[in-house]
Amino acid sequence: MADFSAIDGAVRGVILSIINSMFTLPNRFLLTLDAKNDYFKTYLPPMGVMRITVEKAWDFAEEAQGKAKKIFAKLTRAAPDCYAKVELGAEPLWQTATKDNTVHPSWNETHDFVVSDFHQCIKVHIFDKDVNGDDEVGLGVTTVDEILRNGGRQELALEMSGEQTGGKVSIAAEYFKLEADGGKSFSSSSHKGDGCISGIASVLVASASIKGQREQLKPSVKVTWGQEHTFRTAIQADAPGTDINNPSFNTNFRIPITSKAGSESFRITLLNGEQEVGTVDVPFADVQNAPDMKLQDTFDVGGGQQVRASIAMKGLGAFNAQEMTLPRR
C-alpha cells in the first residue's frame, strides 16, 4: 500500500516537513556549546520580505491532464482547472485561487514571504484540480538572488520528474529590507493582498526563573499577541545537570504585522505544565518607542518569578539591488 502515490506523497510530506522545521531556513537547529551563551547575540534575524506575484502560465495543456482526464477532455473539450502553490524556503506554503477551464490561467495574485538568505529557493508548483486527486502540471524554480538580478521578473520553465514540459509560469517579485526606521507607523507599504505585511515583530525567549519543588516543575513560556497569534516554547523537564528553577528556552517567535493589525500588548506568560503561574503585558507602544524598536529585559511576571525576553519590531524599507551582499552574521 505504501507504493500508492497518495500514501507515498503523504509520507514524504511528513518527513520533509520535519526536516524543514529543523534545518531549512529560517529554521535552525541550535546546539548550545557554552552554557553562558547569550541567545540574544546568537539569534540571527530575518533579512527582508519578498512580495511575490504569480502572474500567469501557458503551454502546459497536455501536461495538465491525467490519462483518464485526457480522454474525457477529448470528448468534452474541457480545459484544466489550474492553481499554483508557492514556497520560499521553509516559510508557510501559499496557494492561489483556481482558474477554471482555461489553458491560459492568469492569477496576478500576491503574497509576502520572509527572506533569511538571498540564496533561498522560490518554488512555483502548478496543479490541475481534479475530484480524484489533483494532477501535477509542473514545477518552476528560481532563487531570491536570481529573480532580483533579473529585474524582479522571470518566466520559469516548468519541469516534471526532472524533464521540461514546455510550459512556463511568469512571476514578479519586489524585495524590502527590514529596518527599525521603516516601521514607525507600520502602514507605509502598498498592500496588494491579504498576505502582505508591513513589518515583523521578533520575540525571543531566552530563560526564566520559576519557584517550586524541582520534581514538580515543568516550565514553559507562552507568548500572545492579539487573538490570532499564540506561541509556546517547549516544556522543560528536570534532568541531571539541569537547573529546572532557572530553565533556558532559547526560542524565537516571529509575528507578522499588517497595516490592519491592532496595537495590543505582547503578553508573556510563565507556565508550570498547563497552569499559568505568572504573566506580564508589554505595551505595543513601549516597543515601538524603544531605541531601534527593541525592548530587551528580564520581565517580572509576579511572585518573584521572571522571564528574560526580547521584543524587536522592524518595518519595510526601500532596497537597492547594489546592496545584494549578505550582511555579516
Question: Biggest sheet: strands, sense, closure?
Answer: 8 strands, antiparallel
Strand elements, count: 16
**Alpha plus pi helix count:** 5
What's the assembly state of these chains? single chain
Q: How many individual domains?
A: 3
Percent of residues in helices: 10-25%
Proportion in β-strands: 35-45%
SS class: mainly beta
CATH topology of the largest domain: Immunoglobulin-like
Provide the succession of SSEs.
HHEHEEEEEHEEEEEEEEHEE
Q: Termini distance? A: 47 Å
Overall description:
With 329 residues, the protein is mainly beta. The protein folds into three domains: 1-31, no CATH class; 48-177, C2 domain (Immunoglobulin-like), CATH 2.60.40.150; 183-317, Sandwich (Immunoglobulin-like), CATH 2.60.40. It has five helices and 16 strands. The protein has helices spanning 5-23, 39-42, 67-76, 144-149, 284-288, and strands at 48-58, 82-88, 94-95, 106-115, 121-128, 135-143, 153-160, 163-179, 199-209, 219-225, 229-232, 248-257, 266-272, 275-282, 294-302, 305-317. Strands 1, 4, 7, 8, 9, 12, 15 and 16 form an eight-stranded antiparallel β-sheet that branches. A four-stranded antiparallel β-sheet has the order 3-2-5-6. A hairpin with a 2-residue loop joins strand 15 and strand 16. The longest helix is centred in the first third of the chain and has 19 residues, at 5-23. It is globular. The model has no long low-confidence stretch (mean pLDDT 87).
